[in-house]
Amino acid sequence: MTLGTPAPSGTTQQEEWIYSFCMGCMQADCSTRVYLKDGVVVNIEGNPDSPLNQGKVCPRAIAAIMGLYNPYRVKTPLKRTNPEKGPDIDPGWVEISWEEALDTVATRLEKVREEDPRKLVVWEGWGAAEVFLITSKEIEKSVNYTHGFLIFSKAFGTPNEVFAHGPLCSIHYAANLVHGQHPEYVTDLQHCQYLIAPGRTVGPNVATPHATKRFLDAIERGMKLVTLDPRFSPEASKAYRWLPVRPGTELAFALAMIHVIFYELKKFDEWSVKNRTNGPYLIGPDGYYVRDNSTKKPLIWDPVDNRAKTFNDPSIKDYALEGEYTVGDVKAKPALQLIKEHMKKYTPEWAEGITSIPASTIREVTQEFVEHAMIGSTITIDDFEFPLRPAQFGGSGRGTMSQRGGTYFDLAGKIINLLVGAVEVPGGITGNRNPGPCADVLEPDDDGVVTPILEAIGIPFKYPPEHVGMNEFYPHAHAAPHLTVRAVLEPEKYYLPYNIEAMLVCGANSIRGTCNRELFIEAFKKVPFTATFSINFDEVAMMADIVLPEHQFLERRYARFYLVAHQSTDDSIRGLVMAMGRNPVKPLFNTKRMDDVLIELADRMGFLTGPGGINDLVNIAFQLKGKNKLDLDKKYTIDEMIDRRVKEVFGNKYSFDYLLEHGVIYKYEATGKLGYNYYYWPDNKTRFPIYFDRLKASGDRMRKNLKKHNIKLPNWKEQEDYFKYYEAIPYWIPSPEFTAPPEYDMWVCNWKTPFMPFGTANTQENAWLAELREEDPYEMYIWINTETAKKKRLEDGDEVWIESRYGKTKGKLKLTELIHPEVVGIPAGYGSGTIMMSPDAKKGTYYNTLLTSQEDTGIDPVSGSISISPKVKVYKVDGAG
Amino acid sequence: MTRYGLVIDLKRCIGCDTCTIACKAANATSRGIMWNHVLKYETGKYPNSQLNFLPITCMHCEEPECEKVCPTGATTKRNDGIVVVDSDKCVGCRYCMVACPYAIRYFFDELQTYYPGYVTPYEEIGYKKHKLGTVQKCDFCLERVEQGLQPACVVACPANARFFGDLDDPDSEVSKLIKERKGFVLNPELGTKPSVYYLPRD
Q1: Which residues are bridge partners to B134 per DSSP?
Q2: How far apart are the CA of B161 and the nearest CA of chain A, in angstroms?
Q3: How many helices (H) and strands (E) does chain A have?
Q4: What is the distance between the alpha carbons of residues A139 and A123, in angstroms, rounded to a whole number?
Q5: What letter does residue A514 receive in the DSSP assignment?
Q6: b/e for A540-562, b at 16 or more Cβ within 10 A?
Q7: Distance CA A341, CA A467 (A)
Q8: 3-state secondary structure of A582
Q9: Please, which residues have CB within 8 angstroms of residue A872's CB and are 6 or more apart in sequence?
């Protein structure tokens, strides 16, 4: 432990404090000070030296004290003696030594590895966000891996990495495709004057400190916020407009906005569309680029010289965006013409019928948006002239994207932003790649369009499939726990050529965090061996054969390399490269750090050292070079690996010890003009896709592959329904919820709150958070519009069932004006626990039983995201249904 | 003469309750006692709805009703404006709780730990600060303030919506904010003259 100098804002009971950082949400980027008295944590505050959270915290950071001292924690390694498994069945735990635990797990997994390493599924979740060997480390196109991997599972040799985070939040495809960045895109709150925020938080709704401050400063400066959301949120209370919307219909709103831009305002950023999108590219009757016969480059039509030219022809005088042209014997139209024709039917009146937002409002908002975009304006930063477009539509959000059609919604949002030129310029939306802008990001491919990465490239097709998560059939899917369990239970149906023999669960609880809970329980029962890293006795721990007790986060000595901006960005984080250090509190119980156990297991199983082993992959993932590279044949501790990484990133005069003593180390790599991706590829040097030919190509490839192997997509009654979501221009497809029987007369929606944005850090069992949420007048209730309740003869405090066609859940009603009349709302993710968790944990209403992950009903076939807002009926618990 | 006051900017407050829990952590209050809490209430009718947040704590009134009624002199207003309860003098009559128009005084009559049946090491240390059978409330983090530090709630607020300082210094941040943004107090008609000011949300 390190003694710091007395803090200017510190508590007074004692002067002893240590640098730490928080894991109260998946961002894990708030540097903190942990105050101690005789080794006991007595307070937690923000670290004022961090340029990110600047001394601030949220409720969860402080509540970590009660998480640390939670008596329901897992205290020792355990093995089960009761062969019957279930979240509410006593496992008959017997305490064992770490040696026995490690030996059992290593022996079992080694056997699996010898048979077929694919038979191990490694579950990863936000609980492991800071764990180096499990954190999903995406390696970008500049290194020779096109897809991310988890170091441990890759060294083991299994491709079966299942992300527990993400089935209800798969928001990456469009960012990977259009921005060439991962994980997502954020709003530039420094310059934005008009922000339309659909189904998402910009910071305050989950109280993330740095985004909250940035948001409020923007509001103070006069930024107009339009929240498109079924419920009135804390952010809506600061907004210029609240647009209450039927959940899952936001795509219709977006399509109507595009219609208004083309047909009513007739105003968009022509220069930007012509020079910086594939809008002018000629599209043939097959839906693909018309290409030059010799160079194979996509063609555009120059209306001045009246002929087709390759997109990068230096003699181009102008680009046609409309019309029909003949090239050779092919009739072609510019992509933008096709988009425009396509959007003709999406009038504001049509959208009003679907969304319930008045057509006049749709028109007004679109007009305001285009006006605020200030098309043609510029801003000079470091004597470089940038386009300035201070209006934005979107920013990644699960409310809109965790829907069937959610990918189309995200892509439609890109069209809106691209039409006003508000992508990757000051004021516009920007990808949030770590460590920020550089020349690689918007580098064009051979067709002159931004090179896609990761999920937008997708997993190559293989038959029989390699992955239990069915990635071969859903190449762009982000996280597929719901498909994994289906394939585990019915491998023949899913063409899986092997059975899963073992599960290793790392900071992930898909039993609670997905839906179709019974499938997960059955899958875990079927698989002969499960080992979990656990802080508490959650659902997955209760299915384990061996429980490996993990330190609560305050007890883990670690470094965290700041990953990405979340929600928004400004100069304080543009180009920021930062590491945070955590000095541990002395562990209370017989627990360990997950990385230490993984190194030990890898060593015992023989893949720690040698080519392709842990050391080798750490070298690649951490981009260690020269002296900092790990010797492939030595055994290193995780602390030594962290030390190497600190040196690699900041230079050899730094170290892990230095980081622990100082709390943060940071520098800015891309500031000023270098902080904007436009700088590296200005003018017509790169283009964003506005016509999504790659998505269409992916669908066409899948058709070919299915035909080639004479197989069908598993679990799709109508195969064509899948391909509807793989077209080059987004369009409206009513989900199965639109044809639900009339008794399901309401929609249901969910949102994250400051008290529980995730289950990470065991927010459910945390007694301080439990008190706050139970005191809160809204948090633990089912929200219903007051008028609607009156019509249904329901009263405040009534206990009701909310029932979809897939499941039901119950809770107490809160009558409120803060929600759309056709929507019932259930906050956060309460109401799910086990017999070994604290009584607080199970209180509340569990949302996920209302959902289905059945492929042809409840998922977006591109992202794999589960549809989060089905239709439901509401009725009193003691009344008739 | 220093006269401490608190300013809460309702334009910035997002109702996250970080102030509530920061106060709790710094002062180790028992379960059921929230020296600072945030009222959350709605106004307006759909679709012109509005959600409002009002953080409430002891107002450290210039004319405190609690001091007037305290039979033992346990409650006093210090020269620096902070209203304090001396728990050695308090006999727990709770007359002050009846008198306080803001309902921000709490009677510590039963130790309720956060995990029933278990006292965490944190609570072991923290609860020693409180005397059973006495009334307690926000004391503007007196011990911190005397060392030149800011109250816990001010330090923690991620919205930068809380300010603390000398109301008698016209150049202090709090004085300037109150003047420029037309800060107001709750229930001025009662004549309590609170030292906690709110900046309007509009």
Answers
A1: B108
A2: 10
A3: 25, 33
A4: 19
A5: S
A6: bbbbbbbbbbbbbbbbbbbbbbb
A7: 40
A8: strand
A9: A744, A746, A747, A748, A802, A803, A804, A824, A850
- Are B51 and A242 within 8 A, CB to CB? no
Question: Can you name the residues that pair with A785 across neighbouring β-strands?
Answer: A816
Residue A616's SS3 state is: helix
Dihedral, CA of residue A548, residue A65, residue A566 and residue A581, to nearest 10: -70
- Per the omega criterion (within 30 degrees of 0), is the bond before B64 cis? no
Distances (CA, A) of A870 to A402, A748, A825: 11, 6, 12
C-alpha span between B142 and B18 (Å, rounded): 19
Report how far Cα A168 is from the mean position of its chain's Cα atoms.
9
In SS3 terms, B80-144 reads as CCCEEECCCCCCCCCHHHHHCCCCCCEEECCCCCCECCECCHHHHHHHHHCCCCEEECCCCCHHH
The amino acid occupying position A65 is I
Q: How distant, in Å, are the alpha carbons of A247, A404, A723, A856, A863 from that of A860?
A: 15, 4, 11, 9, 6
Structure tokens at A755: 């008290």
Q: Nearest CB to A236: which of B31, B51, B161?
A: B51
ipTM: 0.98
Asked if A449 and A684 touch (Cβ cutoff 8 Å), the reply is no
Inter-chain touch A220–B47, beta carbons under 8 Å:
no
Check the CA dihedral A762-A765-A766-A772 and report its sign.
positive
Tell me if B158 and A821 make a contact (CB, 8 A cut-off).
no
Domains of chain B: 4-199 (3.30.70.20)
Task: Name the closest residue on chain A to residue B122, using Cα atoms.
Answer: A42
Interfacial B residues in 139-198 facing A (CB < 8 Å) = 143-144, 147, 149-150, 152, 155-161
Beta strand pairing call for A558-561 and A546-549: unpaired
Q: What is the dihedral of CA A821, A230, A28, A841, to 10 degrees?
A: 20
Cα-based distances in Å from B85 to B57, B93, B170: 15, 13, 29
Closest CA to A236 of B24, B118, B53, B126: B53
Dihedral pair phi/psi, residue A194, rounded to 5°: -145, 115
The CA distance from A498 to A731, in Å, is: 38
CB A872 within 8 A of CB A747: yes
Beta strand A120-124 pairing with A161-163: parallel
Q: Which two tokens stand for residue A722?
A: 């899948």
Chain A, residues 737-756, CB within 8 A of chain B, namely: 754-755
Q: Does A15 touch chain B (CB under 8 A)?
A: no
CB A812 within 8 A of CB A795: no
Query: What are A196's strand-pairing partners?
Result: A226, A393
Cis-peptide, bond into residue A435, ω within 30° of zero: yes
Q: What is the Cα–Cα distance from A873 to A853, expressed in whole angstroms?
A: 20
Nearest-by-Cβ selection for B122 from A40, A58, A59: A40
Which residue's structure tokens are 């100098």?
Answer: A5
**DSSP structure string for A205-235:** GGT-HHHHHHHHHHHHHT-EEEEE-SB--TT
Predicted structure pTM score: 0.96
Question: What does the alpha-carbon distance between residue A672 and residue B107 come to, in Å, rounded to a whole number?
Answer: 56
Mean pLDDT per block of 10 residues along chain A (881 residues) reads 37 72 93 95 96 95 98 98 97 98 98 98 92 70 58 94 89 94 91 96 95 96 97 98 97 98 98 98 98 97 98 97 96 98 98 98 98 98 98 88 95 98 96 82 96 91 95 92 97 97 96 96 98 97 98 97 88 92 97 97 97 94 94 96 96 97 94 95 97 98 98 96 98 96 98 94 95 97 98 97 98 98 97 94 96 96 96 88 47
Place of tokens 């509005």: B50
Q: Within a 10 A sphere around the Cβ of A304, how many other Cβ atoms?
A: 11
